[in-house]
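Entry for the shared binder. Reason: the reviewer on the internal report wants the predicted structure included alongside the sequence.
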Amino acid sequence: MVHLEFYDGSGQTANDELSEYMRQKEEILIRAQAGEEQYRDSLGWLAVDEWAGEERIAEIETFAKRVREDGDILVIIGIGGSNQAARAVIEALPGHGKVKVLYAGNNISSAYINHILEQLDGKSVYINIIAKNFETMEPGIGFRILRQYLKKRYGVGYSSRVFATGTRGSELQELCVTHGYTFLDFPEDIGGRYSALCNVGLFPAAVAGIDIRAMVSGARDMEKNLRTTAGEKNDAFRYAAIRNVLYQKGFRMEMLASFEPRYQYFNGWWTQLFAESEGKDGKGLYPVAVKYSEDLHSIGQFVQEGSPVLFETFLDIEKPDAEVILEADDVDDGFDYLNGTDLRAVNSAAFSATFQAHSERLPCVRLRIEELNEYSFGQLFYFFEFACYLSGSMLGVNPFNQPGVENYKGYMFKALGKHK
């Protein structure tokens, strides 16, 4: 289970103050645990088994097996919440299959899409277009280019290589009916950034050989914990409270940090989750992420001596899963003090030293994760989704809408000649 610890050596936030804030806001936790009627259309993720129960998992595994038995490459076509969660897991874990996953529809760079196409020749290719309402331009362009590629290579039989994840009644489902693509549900009651544990995130992960049952098991256990644990003992509630108390004290940025580069794409998922959920009505912490130890040699300087505008949340893996022993050789390089040391111990020492140094100057949250695997990813997805629901409610914003995302599109569509 994920466990939270909070340190503030600067003395800016007393435990009594945090406890009082949680007592004042406990009704928010109680309502979230039950699922609020006002957000009913956005809470499909709250009960894990609603969209990741046995029947749905079995269906996903059947579809994924079809691709894994014949395919070499799956191209996910989606942007933001439509690919972030799957990519976070796929890129972090080795998987157990031969299918390579590529990502399109997340930008409009001609050089990028050409590089994707160059990797497909001579390979057995499948695509998964993920678009809740099929109105966003980037995946629309990616889908056009990739389906034309498939049609040119495979002829009329190309349609069996297309999986489309969208909402029922959408234009994307109509395309499936017309052209024979395989349709997967994108739940109407789940927004993209909350969609890790449904067809959106689980199907691509299954194709890549990820143990999605372990992911769902982790999420299910986290749901049970967070929806039954009251008050200060609830770590997601505590995390949300810490974020809001620090925001009230003038902090304007939260920085997610870890000493494991395999969290790189999880960082992107986390950043979108909180930026899109809380950045509205002139409010919200600005979420950023760093990769230690690399970024200690740049951003670390700002943390230690720059403007005190941020606090840090650390992901701490308690049981690293690879051993590398540093051995002596015939080169006198000045690092013999490390002879015989496991690189895991070096990384752990760097983590502990960094956490101590940073928490002496600014508030730091430590989230302990036992191992980096499918089970812990499921836990983290659910933990942060539930915490974001709580945190946005404490902030006084709707954690599930994103009106500002649409603002730039009017100008862009006008420039491109779209009139409706």
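Summary line for the report: Residues 409 and 415 are 10 Å apart (CA to CA).
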